[in-house]
Write a structure and sequence with these properties.
Helices cover 72% and strands 5% of the residues. It has 203 residues and is mostly helical. A 3-stranded antiparallel β-sheet has the order 1-2-3.
């Protein structure tokens, strides 16, 4: 089962990457049985925490989002995550030939590498149930660092390239990931201008 890889990537990542390479699942199957499920963790937890728990501003004032606003932002976040994983996966495949790997017509290895590398970020979504900004920032920073290391570790195994080429390949992919992140931030601002911004209420 593909979800079994989530645990293996934290305990024995090299063996897990080799297993992922051997399975060579289609992008559709990886998305349906892995990405769609795990990517939903953060939006669901964010909805619950922002609509029902709220967070403290100052000494005792609790701020929440309206349920409609929380749902809108959670759905948009979910869609952004799905698009981001897809875009990163295709970037991995598109750059494969440059770094000595084989480019595939369906980007199976690229999508798998992107999806499984994002596992720490998906699971970090549980931290949103405790809506304290500094805590969430630390958890997601740690998850992003481990996700980047997973991608670097998996590149030579999944894409079958020499380890020394993985450094340059990983650096290029990090740049792509940052561009995707900035694009989602810009998209968020644009959507807020069209009425999808957060609506706050005092708890």
């Amino acid at each position: 089962m593909l979800l079994g890889h989530a645990f293996g990537l934290f305990t024995h990542p090299d063996d897990e990457w080799a297993s992922i390479r051997k399975e060579h699942e289609t992008p559709t199957r990886v998305y349906v049985t892995y990405v769609l499920l795990l990517a939903a963790i953060a939006p669901i937890c964010a909805y619950v925490s922002t609509a029902y728990f709220g967070w403290t501003v100052g000494s005792d004032r609790i701020i929440k989002l309206t349920e409609i606003s929380a749902i809108q932002l959670s759905v948009l976040t979910y869609l952004a995550m799905l698009v981001g994983v897809f875009a990163l996966g295709y970037a991995i495949n598109w750059m494969a030939r440059t770094y000595g790997a084989r480019e595939e017509h369906n980007a199976a290895n690229g999508i798998a590498l992107a999806a499984y590398s994002c596992t720490p970020l998906f699971l970090a979504g549980f931290a949103l149930l405790y809506p304290v900004p500094w805590f969430n920032a630390l958890v997601f920073l740690g998850a992003a660092c481990y996700g980047a290391w997973l991608m670097y570790d998996g590149l030579p195994i999944v894409m079958q390239i020499p380890k020394e080429r993985a450094v340059m390949y990983g650096g290029a992919l990090l740049t792509v990931a940052l561009v995707i992140l900035v694009s989602t931030r810009v998209g968020s601002v644009l959507l807020w201008n069209f009425g999808f911004g957060p609506v706050f209420v005092s708890g």
